[in-house]
Amino acid sequence: MAPIRIGIVGLSASAKTSWAANAHLPYLLSPRGQSHYKIVALLNSSVEAAKKSIQHFNLPPETKAYGDPQALADDGDVDLVVVNTRVDVHHQTALPSAKAGKNVYVEWPLAQDAQHVEELVQAARQGGGRTLVGLQGRVAPPVEKLRDLIQSGRIGKVLNSEVVAAGGLNDRERAPQSLKYFLQRSVGGNVYTIGFGHLFDQIQYVLGDFTNIESHLQIQRPEVKIFDPASKNVVETIQSDVPDLIYAIANLPTSESTQAGASALLRFRRGQTFKGDPALVWTIQGTNGEIRLTAKDGTTLHASAYSGPVTIQVYDFATDTVEDVSWEWADWQEELPILARSVGEVYERFASGNGSVLASFDEAGVRHHQLNKLLDAFDHQ
């Protein structure tokens, strides 16, 4: 089978954040990735910028360089467009390809606001191409292990779930210059949509889509110091309009594995935990037992939470014993950097056609609607 030909948007030699280079490129340039995919084009802010990136990342000299999203959309030699820009550029770079019926993979969040999200969703429906959104935490091994435990009936029927998490940024009072936009709602990629949003999707992937969601959002620390990562000196203080404390409670859908009336409770705050506490504790209580996932050093099960232990335990009520449940990366994932492992699994499933659990534009639209509804309530409280 011929490799899937990829055009990457936002693989930049000078980007302040380098998700494309750190999370996508390692798999795509690995022997396994190259057996399924071939990078044939780059789209950057200009043709010249794209050419520089082709040289910087040692891509084949025949790789096409584009500075115009429409030109990439018109290229019949590109099968899949992968958008890795900042969130507020997703719409303008992905829309032409979605309209043209190309397969399009856009990082999460899909776009910066509800209007632009809906335009991309509608364009993809009309264009008819396959769509992906970078909610790769769904295929992270610990998350899949939780889902398997629930669906196998290991703890009986789910009664409730509680999530306590602290993250989004490494510090409650400071942020590096490169992540200043994490404190600005207008950009669309921030502590709420990214830090909380990824976890919000993973929980619903495991337990089912929430209904009757109620929330309390708060901005505890509106003034945030922005520092230069090189000197560590504070260069400015800004006003954040992004909630840094999120409480949410919701009903879980009744199913073979979940009892009617089951509920979920979430608490997410920006910054550090109480000293010594894990960054993430996620419990799921059932009629016969309870599951606990603990991530010591981060909430980002889709990315970098693995610098410390990520453990899963099952408490069996009948035997009054606790069992450690193992999870593991595939051998080929072990050869990749941590950030690239779950992203690589997304590519694997897309290439094999086994992508039923991967998030589409339509599914991302549902998550955006849920998150926006909570923000609207916050704005009018």
UniProtKB/TrEMBL annotation:
Domain Gfo/Idh/MocA-like oxidoreductase N-terminal: 4-134
Listed InterPro entries: Gal80p-like_C (IPR055080), Gfo/Idh/MocA-like_OxRdtase_N (IPR000683), Gfo/Idh/MocA_oxidoreduct (IPR051317), NAD(P)-bd_dom_sf (IPR036291)
Residues spanning the membrane: none
Gene Ontology molecular-function annotations: nucleotide binding
Domain Gal80p-like C-terminal: residue ranges: 141-294
Protein name: Uncharacterized protein
Classification via Pfam families: Gal80p_C-like, GFO_IDH_MocA
Gene3D superfamilies: Dihydrodipicolinate Reductase, domain 2, NAD(P)-binding Rossmann-like Domain
